[in-house]
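Structure (tokenized):
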């Protein structure tokens, strides 16, 4: 065996075609497709890592290779088992790490630089604790349904936005010396019935069925970005695709992932994803359980043809290649430490958390110049989300589902999205600090329904009701005379009385969900009633929403007393500070919606699937693609978000920059890591002038949407570029978008390839998916 592998290693140096002959096996019916040594995929920048991996594996017996693929160490070659860990929002369950914002929050920034900075900082903390692989970044669940319980962990509901962010994550993690383990592969869009255990075994795990076009154009899309940008591992899902477990699905893993996308790394299973020895190994799982993959089973399989030597070698190579690719062999990484060890890896990452939190916040409504605040005389805070939970910070949550709300300030998720907080700045804390600087009088009721049952202060007297003129002592007993917010009326401890007369009323609401259960609601009666009862008494009610996914606001959004709404994800340890930065204008808001907020639940077309087979019959039409196609008016559309300044768009210019490339309907490039190379060619350039015509400096997110010709059978318009640009008041900036071949391609089911259909493409740039300001048509092809 050793000699065979040595030939493999040597052959690699010469040509890939030579290496192909070493894959000969006793079982030729098992697909050679997806085997790295076949040479089908040009490994590019992975070539050196592949050579190192092959050289390492060449030193091993089959028994030792089996040790590696089942997560063991082989001391003879100094191979130490890889340490895997959850948590792109922090090293999960660890002390002395940073509590970053969630991935979904990061996607709200629409800022590529900030995404990179944060994800690299996260990865450096994993590196410093001695981990080699992260179970992330998370592209999917993508957000087929807004009720999906895990959307807080993912990078937005649009394949393009999600893909760009996912690619940035793969690159940032790799740059930090960590193997990025992108997840979940694939069509794992809901928590209900995801696992046989604890569910109805007749229907669980559910099987997702998507047609080939939808699969490529919506769900596989972002994995192209991830693989192209350096994913070294991919986590297959717990669920099934087309009736076969994702982790044992040869079409999915050996075919789509390893061949079409040219993925060179290891596939590892989500919990329970592996149920057989040969189904999983032949299906494309590379890292699995020693209870299925025993030495005896796999060696017998090779002997009787159920399995192949080539595949075992491939699995072993794939287990170590990522380690070499990111330079984990360079001797620099600190030793692995336990969760409570005092190894402080935080550096100055709190500044990233604060900056990115503020940059992610989305201003949805702002009337009467309610925001930014400027030294208000008085302020009242409402809702349990404004302040700390009794015992916290938000730690530790179940993977069996959580929510629908959280009775304290929510700044981190649950399950795999759980944040490890070293501390948590609540809005109450940061607003109080600000009040002390500004001379603002501040009150709070940190409860959504609170009514005091206290009847006495001094001596237990009865609280006065209304504008009682009883004795001073009685007033003090009820808190009226000393409270004073209400300018003469008595102030008892209830929500309407605290709201009455406050110059600013701030209401804080949240929505929580996470791994293990889907959302049960997209709005919350208790919280919506709180907003309404404050607004009934306060003509300057500002609502702050921190949510795990789309949150319906229609119970009160049109109330004229609700003057401003700030909407965001879960912001991490600096949450209150990020909010204050935006509320007081230290940071001009520039977050944009990564999903559509509907007016009603029934406006969304996809709910939770309760059957054994989940047919993705809606095709590509999820989120704004559905709203646009079926003329459903959203409350706030995908891409929406206000600023304290205003921007004007002009002078759009769109040119084909590589007509040679576009002369061919299908890509002609070789298959490489990330798919055929020319899918990534920049073929069209668009530029636009954006002018800040308001009085404050601010950042605008210019968004490029493309409408394909009818023959391509595509949604009305699709995001195909975005750039966040800081523009000072009165200045202009030229914003340029480079459109890649894949950005104007459609999946041709007959040809099984990405096609550029000839015809007129309309390029529009604007401030949201429904606020397109300038357009230009470009004719592609004959
Ligand atoms: C590899 O196999 C092919 C076809 O089976 C054969 O033509 C070629 O000569 C072989 N190459 C080597 C180096 O053995
Ligand atoms: C294993 O590592 C040790 C210490 O770094 C080194 O001395 C030894 O040569 C290595 N062995 C192999 C087989 O690489
Ligand atoms: C080893 O890799 C890490 C992570 O990329 C890097 O920070 C470090 O500088 C490298 N060390 C050496 C000696 O190259
Ligand atoms: C699943 O089956 C559908 C319909 O037969 C097919 O279009 C699709 O490509 C299959 N998907 C996978 C991942 O095999
Ligand atoms: C592993 O399997 C091989 C081949 O069947 C056998 O020679 C070897 O003894 C086994 N090793 C162990 C530890 O069982
Ligand atoms: C090859 O392996 C598959 C299972 O992976 C098995 O069904 C088939 O019978 C084997 N073919 C031969 C010729 O042994
Ligand atoms: C909020 O106040 C209500 C009414 O006073 C009380 O029943 C409830 O327990 C409080 N909730 C919390 C989370 O303190
Ligand atoms: C809001 O009410 C206050 C009194 O509480 C009043 O001074 C102010 O003019 C009102 N503002 C608007 C916009 O109605
Ligand atoms: C708005 O607030 C004022 C108190 O400032 C109140 O009189 C009025 O009824 C409120 N309007 C609504 C629509 O609730
Ligand atoms: C899913 O689609 C298939 C094929 O169109 C159909 O036979 C099946 O009944 C559908 N299942 C559900 C649960 O809708
Ligand atoms: C497009 O071409 C025109 C004419 O050559 C040129 O003025 C413009 O700058 C080009 N725009 C872009 C975005 O390349
Ligand atoms: C409860 C109470 O005493 N209400 C009085 C408040 O003041 C107004 C006007 O002075 C009276 O009409 C109310 O009866």
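Design, position by position:
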């Amino acid at each position: 065996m050793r000699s065979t592998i040595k030939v493999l290693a040597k052959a690699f140096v010469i040509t890939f075609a030579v290496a192909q002959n070493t894959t000969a096996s006793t079982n030729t019916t098992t697909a050679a497709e997806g085997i790295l040594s076949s040479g089908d995929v040009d490994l590019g920048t992975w070539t050196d890592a592949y050579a190192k991996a092959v050289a390492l594996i060449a030193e091993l017996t089959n028994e030792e290779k089996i040790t590696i693929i089942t997560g063991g160490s082989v001391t003879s070659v100094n191979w130490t088992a890889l340490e895997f860990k959850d948590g792109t929002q922090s090293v999960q369950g660890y002390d002395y790490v940073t509590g970053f914002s969630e991935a979904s929050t990061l996607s709200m920034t629409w800022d590529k630089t900030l995404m990179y900075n944060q994800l690299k900082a996260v990865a450096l903390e994993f590196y410093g604790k001695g981990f080699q692989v992260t179970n992330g970044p998370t592209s999917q669940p993508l957000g087929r349904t807004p009720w999906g319980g895990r959307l807080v962990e993912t990078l937005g509901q649009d394949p393009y936005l999600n893909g760009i962010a996912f690619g940035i994550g793969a690159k940032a993690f790799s740059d930090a010396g960590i193997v990025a383990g992108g997840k979940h592969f694939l069509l794992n869009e809901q928590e209900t019935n995801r696992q046989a255990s604890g569910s109805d075994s007749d229907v669980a795990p559910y099987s997702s069925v998507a047609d080939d076009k939808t699969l490529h154009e919506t769900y596989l899309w972002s994995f192209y970005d991830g693989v192209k940008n350096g994913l070294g591992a991919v986590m297959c899902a717990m669920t099934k695709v087309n009736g076969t477990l994702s982790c044992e699905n040869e079409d999915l893993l050996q075919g789509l992932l390893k061949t079409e996308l040219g993925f060179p790394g290891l596939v590892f299973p989500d919990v329970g994803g592996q149920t057989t020895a040969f189904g999983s190994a032949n299906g494309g799982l590379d890292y699995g359980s020693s209870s299925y993959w025993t030495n005896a089973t796999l060696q017998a399989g090779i002997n009787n043809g159920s399995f192949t030597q080539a595949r075992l070698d491939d699995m072993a190579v794939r287990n170590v290649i990522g380690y070499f690719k990111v330079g984990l062999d360079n001797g620099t990484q600190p030793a692995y430490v336990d969760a409570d060890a005092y190894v402080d890896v935080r550096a100055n990452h709190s500044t990233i958390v604060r900056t990115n939190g503020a940059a992610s916040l989305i201003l949805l409504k702002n009337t009467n110049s309610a925001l930014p605040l400027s030294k208000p005389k008085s302020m009242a805070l409402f809702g349990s989300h404004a302040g700390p939970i009794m015992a916290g910070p938000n730690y530790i949550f179940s993977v069996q589902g959580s929510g629908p709300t959280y009775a304290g300030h929510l700044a981190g998720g649950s399950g795999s999205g759980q944040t490890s907080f070293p501390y948590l700045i609540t809005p109450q804390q940061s607003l109080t600090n600000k009040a002390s600087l500004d001379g603002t009088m501040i009150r709070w009721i940190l409860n959504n329904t609170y009514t005091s049952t206290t009847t006495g202060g001094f001596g237990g007297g009865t609280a006065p009701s209304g504008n009682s003129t009883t004795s001073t002592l009685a007033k003090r007993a009820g808190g009226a005379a000393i409270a004073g917010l209400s300018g003469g009326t008595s102030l008892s401890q209830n929500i309407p009385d605290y709201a009455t007369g406050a110059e600013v009323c701030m209401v804080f609401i949240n929505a929580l969900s996470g791994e293990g259960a889907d959302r049960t609601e997209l709005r919350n009666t208790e919280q919506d009633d709180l907003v309404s009862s404050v607004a009934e008494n306060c003509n300057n009610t500002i609502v702050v929403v921190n949510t795990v996914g789309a949150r319906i606001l229609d119970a009160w959004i049109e109330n004229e007393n609700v003057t401003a709404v700030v909407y965001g994800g879960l912001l991490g340890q600096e949450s209150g500070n990020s909010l204050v930065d935006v509320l007081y204008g230290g940071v001009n808001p520039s977050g944009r919606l990564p999903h559509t907020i509907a007016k009603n639940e029934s406006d969304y077309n996809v709910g939770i699937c309760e059957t054994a087979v989940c047919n993705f019959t809606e095709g590509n039409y999820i989120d704004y693609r559905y709203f646009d196609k079926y003329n459903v008016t959203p409350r706030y559309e995908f891409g929406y978000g206000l600023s304290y300044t205003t921007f004007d768009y002009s002078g759009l210019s769109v040119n084909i920059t590589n007509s040679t490339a576009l002369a061919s309907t299908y890509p002609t490039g070789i298959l490489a890591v990330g798919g055929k190379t020319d899918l990534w060619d920049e073929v069209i350039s668009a530029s636009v002038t954006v002018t800040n015509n308001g009085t404050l400096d601010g950042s605008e997110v210019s968004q490029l949407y493309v409408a394909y010709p009818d023959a391509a059978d595509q949604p009305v318009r699709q995001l195909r570029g975005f750039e966040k640009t800081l523009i000072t008041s009165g200045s202009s900036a030229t914003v340029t978008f480079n459109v890649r071949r894949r950005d104007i391609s459609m999946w041709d089911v007959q040809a099984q390839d990405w096609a550029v259909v000839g015809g007129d493409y309309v390029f529009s740039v604007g401030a949201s998916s429904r606020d397109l300001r300038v357009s230009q048509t470009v004719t592609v092809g004959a």
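Reviewer-requested clarification: Confidence is low (pLDDT under 50) at residues 1-31, 455-489. The radius of gyration is 28 Å.
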